[in-house]
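BUG-486 | component: ligand-complex export | severity: low

The export step for 6-O-phosphono-beta-D-fructofuranose jobs runs without errors, but we want the raw record kept on the ticket for reference. Input record follows.
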Amino acid sequence: MNLVVVSNRVARGKANEPMTGGLAAALLPVVEKSGAIWVGSSGRVRDGHQKEPFAEIEALGAGALALLDLPSAHYGGYYEGFANSALWPALHSRSDLIRASQGDYLSYREVNAFMARALLRFNKPDAAFWVQDYHFLALGAELRDLGVSEPIGFFLHTPWPARSVMEGVPHHRELIEAMLAYDLIGFQTEDDCENFLSYVRENLELPVHGDTVRSRHGRTRATVFPIGIDAEKFAQYAAKSVMHPDVSRLRRSLNGEKLAIGVDRLDYSKGLVNRINAFDQMWTAHPQLARTVSLLQIATPSRGSIEAYGNLQAEVARLVSEVNGRHGEVDWTPIRYLNKGFSQAVLAGLYRTAQVGVVTPLHDGMNLVAKEYVAAQNPVDPGVLVLSKFAGAAKELDAALLVNPHDIDGMARTIGVALSMPATERRMRYDAMMKKLQQQTIQQWFVDFIDALQDNQTSKVAAEPIIAGATSLWPRRAGHSSARYH
Ligand code: F6P
């Protein structure tokens, strides 16, 4: 099989370079080994009419990395617009933040179509396409419109919300019906998959039998593939990186004091405000904990030109400064707040230094930081993971201290419990979580999805319209200028 993996963001990083985003960092090692071609955005834009859309094609392990300059006229409407101001808030159940103009939607469609045309270059008889994430919900349908009949799979890295939330996204019917052009759709959790199938059943009124939908595109299977990490590699990084200057400087600066760590993109789904309020509450209720525990919060800036993100950056910075002003001393800072990324190797060492890992998103597809924190611990003296029950990871890491990220008092109390947990209980919880991480690795996730895509293809019947008399929700595109959009 000639596998073509597609995602908006790609990673070229090495272990010692900073990387943004769980998806790219997770995919890099497996794509490198598999020999696949990984196609994504170069991060630059061009006018979109060039004959050769690929700006760069370079070797990546046993495969290749092919980078596209996306069309400049549509990039903003696609990335900051429809993908991150309409789909992202909806997928994270923040209907109040959904903003989308018709222009943004047109741009999203145009970029999906542009990507489909570029992918034709890799459409060989033995090809299979694996599309990643919400940036490309419509890519499968665009590829089918161009005559591609090879297997196409899709994996969503974010949650999938309740029907009523998706109904807040303009053009939701058209987009979700278009997703059925994929042969296989993967979700992080059962809840996400069930929400999707419920939309298909109720809103599209299509027959769903078990995990299979029948539509005018043929059969689509929707099922769960929880993404994992390479726990052994992370553990090795962590053990080695104690010597790294950043890690040893952090250790020295603590003077025996305990440390809690949070590592997130600066995103409203991550629950940063509630987390900082919980620490504030803890130091207020237990002033004796001042000077004995501090928080290192790494928050990598993200999507800064979107209003909701700009507001959040300002709010978190103000809150950190208030809390530090309230509880700080001349020689003690309660919260160290850093707006920059670190390499995975350094992060592993920072995680190992912290007695508590705080991963408290309001909603999260999986959250690989939770898994990485556990994998980085010293097995004989592990730290404790405080984990939101609304992160996909909570389904597997149920030996963490699970919290409701909306309950500030509850989180404050649980952080206190984590800080004073005896070593035997810490080890028991760590062992249980590590066992799961070793079973469900990123390598296994990759293999499971590709195997399911191949099996699905073997059992697939020819596409047959089953909605008698219904017209397609997906308008065929007759050239750029005459495209119709619902
Ligand atoms: O959660 C889905 C995801 O693709 C993550 O893997 C990643 O952290 C983020 O979204 C990507 O964000 P960005 O807009 O920075 O590429």
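Assignee comment: Attached the raw record above. The mean pLDDT is 92.
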